[in-house]
Amino acid sequence: MKSKILIVDDQPTMRLLLKITLSGEGYELYEATDGISALEIAQKINPDLIIMDVMMPGMDGYTAIERIKQIPQLRNISFFIITAKDTRIYKEFSQDAGAIYHFTKPFDPGDILQKVNEIFDNNKKTTV
Known about the structure:
Rossmann fold, 47% helix
């Protein structure tokens, strides 16, 4: 069964970069343009990982994560944060929100690919 990844960013170029980065790995990729649509899509597809931008219109990424985690069937989703904010306080916000990784824009797409593959390889090893 393919792992599902929801990419959430209000910038089309960022979503495209992440889709291109992850597309050859066999994951099912979905997109959302803001926190509100991320919440709706997550409830429909039950993703394994959400890569979430922080600064978006309507609902920021941290609020979206908090709301998603309040839904019982979505509590165990893994989160990566991507943001232009590279201060200690934002890294702490990401950690407090339960994100596994905090990536600062601009980031190396290879780093995200490596971390995505690591978490899904670890999941495969523990479920076998």
